[in-house]
Protein 1
Amino acid sequence: MSNKEKKVREDRVGFGTLLLWSSRSISQTVFVLMYTFLMIYCTDTLQISPVIVSAILMGSKLVDGVTDMVAGFLVDRTKTRWGKARPYEIFIVGFAVCTWLLFSCPASWSMTVKCVWVFLLYTMANAVCMTFLNANGTPYTVRAFKSEQIVKLTSYGSVFPMLTGFVFNLTFPMMMQKIATSAAGWSRLVLMWAIPAVAIGILRMIFIKEKYEVETAKMQKEPLKARHVLELVKSNKYIFLLVLMTLIFNFVTNMGVVTYYYTYIVKNVGLMGVASAITIIALPLAFVFPKLIAKFSTGKLIIAGLFVTSFGYLLNFFAGDNMPVLIFAQLLTGAGTVPVSMLIGLCVIDCAEYNEWKGNHRMEGTMSSIVGLGGKIGAAVGGSVLGVFLSMSGYTGVMETMPGSALTMIRLIFSLIPMALFLITGLSMTAYLRMEKQLPEIKEANKANRESANQ
């Protein structure tokens, strides 16, 4: 066997490994998508005012902002026999339990108790469990696989959460119509999804080991301190472009306006799953991303996707209840956001290379937490803005008394507002391309420095 053939074989990622590595992403996808239904669950089932729900979400983010920074720092400082990042996979269990309990609030409780319950469980799920899951992902990846395997792993592995999202978006709204007709129904529905999801999600921790050390001996000996985080903030402006992109992406996708749109504009929430099913067409993109990245770069693919998504949201404005147009627009918005959701981890790894080139700690965990914080702020603000805008427009929660102003607001939040936000984000990300041009030289310099420092 030639050296080239041997290298190709070593860089290959087997299907079993790919499936095991994707297991936590599959589980996490289920729970994250459930939270897009949180607003309508609180307003229509628990009868909590949209403004109060918005205040609860925003209040939770005050806690979240603190825990995000702490989690990334802890992951980067961790050294155990299981590795640096692997032990934190256990938080997928806590995420599942908190999500089920959140959607199991008895409607008979007083308004005050219901609000406290939602706040506590939402905070535990997102400010603790989701925070550590965001922080450990990239550090785990670079220590479990070779750099040549990571692009394939990220691209091909994204098929499984995409399929999960497809199945969830197709079936959950239909199940919601039949089962989630009461508070007890919501609890039963979420539990039906949570049990298999958490059983799958823990497989990665059990079977995938950390095998590689990516930092130089010098950096391993130098303890990570708070001042290193400040150095990161000062020296790496590119991470903030990723924060902005993740914030906008989660702001739009977590507003939960789609459920309102199909309830009050299309007047059939079951069709929401039919429109979402079209995103299955975007799955083949995962198999061509390694070649596309080699030809066009990660940043260029993300920017192109953001512009395609903007056009899809523009079509939503003209769609009304026309299902063919809504389905085509869904295809564009879904396919356009695939590069963002799929390739963000590769961008964090690139930023870690940039940190190392600058003479700093790589800090994948800290940067993942910073990016994750941006995403969670976007999700919370999105939900909050939705509640505020619905209240301002006179939203009543009852079809017979729904004013035209509320319907107009739902249409705008479903179309022109996200269109403008994704367009601005795409233009902002062009600055990221400057760092990408330097990456080949940066990686070669880092490789040479590691070999020299570790001798």
Note: The chain is about 80% helix and 0% strand.
Protein 2
Amino acid sequence: MELKPIRNKREYQACLAEVERLWDARPHTPEGDRLEVLVLLIQAYEAKHYPIADPDPIMFLLDAMDARGLKRKDLEPYIGSRARVAEVLNRVRPLSLEMIRRLSEGLGLPAEVLIQRYDVQRAA
């Protein structure tokens, strides 16, 4: 198989099969180098044809809380008072840039996800 950009599904499938064949190749060998290049080609094709959208920031925050066993009270140092945490999690108030910074630095959450736009309830 000649190395070239993947342009269609048939070529994509062929690359996947070749990667599977080379999967146990040792690094820094011709087979290992070929595997590495094929993986890069596959990643580029998948990024273009099967993009994965960033998650909703509030859903991401709720999932992170669940995974880490955090309660709403645990977010107060990063977001503010208990009422402020409730407003953010209930989508009444958007995350501010400062909240995003504190969540990112304090909890190690990716700022690029938290900064995404999301729906906030409008006051009646």
Note: Residues 9-49 form one domain.
Protein 3
Amino acid sequence: MARNKLVIKYQDGRIIKGWVENFKSEREMIIIHPLREYSQEEKLEINLNELKAIFFVKDFIGNNKFQKAKTFENYPPSTPTMRHIVVHFKDGEKLYGTSYSYNPNKNGFFVYPIDSMDNSIRIFVIKNATEKIEFP
């Protein structure tokens, strides 16, 4: 079974890195296998409502010099299936990307970074951690 690397960000600011094997966005819980520096437990069961977002990443190190996109100016226009989206989180952070799965009636949705250099492959945003969603 394929294991996806992820970084989980809680609404209170905590972060956990680890792996998930079978993520289902419609579930209320996620079971992850955390890296040892975050937990000695083999598995952690986490309620999605505690989270801000789940970042499915290329690697755990990332690039601390990378500046995330804060505009759509240098990126292709959105299409009917992949719309530009700006997610305003309750903590003040903004996430710029594209989405084709946004549904205001669901608990969360996927956002894809607009910059191919971003360490995130996709991000599952938890709706109750957001203040506002824009489609520019």
Note: The beta strands are 4-10, 15-20, 29-34, 44-47, 51-57, 83-89, 94-99, 108-113, 120-126, 130-134.
Protein 4
Amino acid sequence: MSTAKKAANLTVRADLLEEARARKINLSQTLETALAAELKKQREAEWLEQNKAAIEAYNRHVEKHGLFSDRYRTFMRED
């Protein structure tokens, strides 16, 4: 997926910047990758929080009634 790029001014610790440049690390790509990972993590946490009640209700239902597929399993579950 290709999206438009936009310039951003950042401040970075000087020692990290110097070492990254010495190692020819692509700063823009590294930041994009790190931001994408952090945003994904935050979206997942928000989704879990927004759906917490439904997840808990489903877990209670499974605890009480089991899974629909339990009767079709050909192996036994050991707890």
Note: The CA atoms of residues 39 and 45 lie 10 Å apart.
